Amino acid sequence: MFHLLDIIGTMAFAMSGALTAMSKKLDPFGVFIIAFVTAVGGGTLRDVMIGRTPVGWMQDPTYVYVIVWGFILAIIFRKKLDRLRTSLALFDTIGLGVFTLIGIQKGIDYHLHPVICIALGTMTACFGGVTRDILCVEIPVIFRREVYATICIIGGILFFALRKMNVENDVLYLATSSIIIVIRLLAVKYKWHLAPLEHK
Amino acid sequence: MFHLLDIIGTMAFAMSGALTAMSKKLDPFGVFIIAFVTAVGGGTLRDVMIGRTPVGWMQDPTYVYVIVWGFILAIIFRKKLDRLRTSLALFDTIGLGVFTLIGIQKGIDYHLHPVICIALGTMTACFGGVTRDILCVEIPVIFRREVYATICIIGGILFFALRKMNVENDVLYLATSSIIIVIRLLAVKYKWHLAPLEHK
Amino acid sequence: MFHLLDIIGTMAFAMSGALTAMSKKLDPFGVFIIAFVTAVGGGTLRDVMIGRTPVGWMQDPTYVYVIVWGFILAIIFRKKLDRLRTSLALFDTIGLGVFTLIGIQKGIDYHLHPVICIALGTMTACFGGVTRDILCVEIPVIFRREVYATICIIGGILFFALRKMNVENDVLYLATSSIIIVIRLLAVKYKWHLAPLEHK
What we know:
3 copies of one chain form a homotrimer.
Chain A: H1 2-23, H2 28-50, H3 56-59, H4 62-76, H5 85-109, H6 114-135, H7 149-164, H8 169-190
């Protein structure tokens, strides 16, 4: 079940990357690389920083195949994706919840401090998108408009609060990912965002 | 022989980086770093991702010296490099072929899946240039115009096809690098490129 | 003492990152990430490249707390920071000296060649700022105007020259960091910079 959600999230991230790249008029190789990087960039950065190498996607070619499919689907349906925007946002949000949990779990596996685990969860969920924006020469959208990363941090804090209460693992996972997904959907619906900080 | 080609490719990549940086009016330190990153960026990313650390160029200062020479030559001949463009493109192409093979070989050494090995070969050959463009705040040229990475992928597929037929190692290396170099030279001569994918 | 200087440098780097991010009108999360990356980016890149994982700041949450404080202070005093510019430049310069030494020392711990150690010192001191500029979609300032990295390299060469003369460790550290700090302050005061290299 969890693995299936991981696959759905990976594909949604790959498609979102492909769409951004196509709007920049990149060639097919460029579109594929941006799709790839958006999907696995966060987990790759996490693995490299904690020393879990070769990084995750190199040990399981499934991810490569999923991304290839996401890339192909994004190209085929590129003219219809505006109408599919809602489904895509839903899948993307599932990715957000699942990837945050995967990142936190990896931190726990490496016996890192809860604060660091939350940072790893946020990194796993958000830095694929950051890399996508940097490769497209844009200031990353999550630094400007979206309450995206903040939700991962809230989810992470909740995770460790529940864990301290000895909540069972299944419930812990379900509760944390659900709360991340629900807040994110509300944020999209009601256009929540953080006000920019200006220094003058 | 193979090592000599590696050196030639490294120097060509360093010079191409230095030229891009000078066209952006960077100061000498900036030019040097861009030369450095263009030459070793792909291999560094590969080594970090597979966990081969300290990364390659840290274990053999030869690369640093070669890059210093490439940097100095690029500065001295900077006004004449237009006329030397053809030789430079040839050396750069040798780098492309050799670096692809080195990346594939590292993947095999780490017992990774052929698909991942081809990704590592492409990364080794192409991501120095991607990093160069990002540091110069340009959308990477290989995502937009050049059939550069696609040739590495074709070369990689050929490599594993021949390998399955139990072709001898020397022939395998020679055939793969030659085919990459020949296709690349034809692509430059006849201005082959992939059409951009637009989604509207 | 050395650890205290490390903390001061980390906080100064975090504040410089926060100020750059606020001038780009990022939201609070974006400002925090840029502060974080400016403070630990150089050391993180160094650790990942030499294989010292999980990277430094993951093993000691002190850094995270220092950066959170730097972030908060930068927000509170953001309207007064122009008047505090001199103190901030001083702290930043302390960071430059200390981080260069930390990077060199890590290279020695890993038995790397002096040339590579100097590269690691320069990377530790300078690449946080490079990452900050890349995330803000600017050509890194140290590639264009500032004699910043060049001073780290000079300091590194001095370090190994003194070391060859069997200078005691304490004196070695004090002399190298002092010289880096003094040259940097002179460079800021007299606006020293390297002329750009143009190729046409």
